[in-house]
Amino acid sequence: MEDKALGIIKHSVRPIVGLLTDFGTKDGFVGAMKGVMLSINPELQLVDISHQVEPFNVLEGALLLKAHYRYFPENTIFVCVVDPGVGSQREPLALRCGKYFFVGPHNGIFDLALKDIKENIFAYKIERFTLPRINETFHGRDVFAPVAGHISKGTPLENVGKRIEYKFLLDWEEPKLLGNKVVGKIIYFDKFGNCITNIPCGNYIYGEFRGRKLDVVSYFLQKKEKEPAFVCGSFGYMELFIPMGNAQALLEVKRGEEVILYTS
């Protein structure tokens, strides 16, 4: 249970931390963060959301967090580090919104999830509970990991630092509604080469890409192989795909390309 007045986690089960970074797994950075957290709270359950975010791509990290946070239990702490501004004046944050806690840089990576939750945001600038020596190139290990570890043991958010106003900073472009059509763009490619757009799932009649009319289907194999189409994907947005094929590679799709979905 959570004391909503104090932002305290009171666990009857092992606390969970969800990790999302652009660190990859080659250099041991993720392992170091896990080691710090487990040193503070050996009871933690650590769940890797992804460590393959494109380097420095805050928007991509925000999209992945927004797509997956809701499938975690109440009181999960999300430690998200896609942080090209590490060591600069950007603020390190610990915050609570709805049922969840978030720890990471104040650079927009939490924006899409927080807008989706649509509840009050209690944000605090991290000033305490860091490691004694902070390397200004690795706040994931020296700032965010120890703070998450202490929060998981019941440390109130207000003990971490001073309360600040959360500002939405992400450069996110909403699709445009023009009569019976929604105009958006390609923003992300998944492992299979599906092209995720910024157009939310909805009841669309057909779509258009590069001037070509395309079907909207309910599942991937509803279309024949090599025929592109649109589908409502697991990210909650419409996707351009090719059944049993890599649409990004086969169509040479670029980020930012325009897509149109028609409602009638």
Structure at a glance:
It is built from six helices and 17 strands.
Report the total helices: 6
Overall 3D geometry?
A: elongated
The average pLDDT score comes to: 94
Beta-sheet strand percentage? Answer: 25-35%
Number of strands: 17
Q: Largest sheet at a glance? A: 7 strands, mixed
Order of helices and strands: EEEHEHEEEHEHHEEEEEEEEHE
The helix content is 10-25%
Distance between the termini: 46 Å
Poorly predicted runs:
1-5
Structural class: alpha+beta
Order of strands across the widest beta sheet? 4-3-5-7-6-8-9
Give a verbal description of the structure.
The chain is elongated and about 60 Å long. A seven-stranded mixed β-sheet has the order 4-3-5-7-6-8-9, with helices on both faces. A seven-stranded mixed barrel has the order 11-12-16-15-14-13-17. The chain is α+β, with helices and mostly antiparallel strands and 264 residues long. Residues 1-5 have low confidence and may be disordered. Helix 1 (29-40) runs parallel beside helix 4 (139-152) and helix 2 runs parallel beside helix 3 (111-117). The N and C termini lie far apart (46 Å). The chain contains six helices and 17 strands. Helix content is 20%, strand content 31%. The protein has helices at residues 29-40, 58-68, 111-117, 139-152, 157-160, 247-251; strands at 2-3, 8-9, 16-21, 45-50, 77-81, 92-97, 100-105, 121-125, 163-164, 176-178, 181-189, 195-200, 206-209, 212-217, 229-232, 237-241, 258-262.
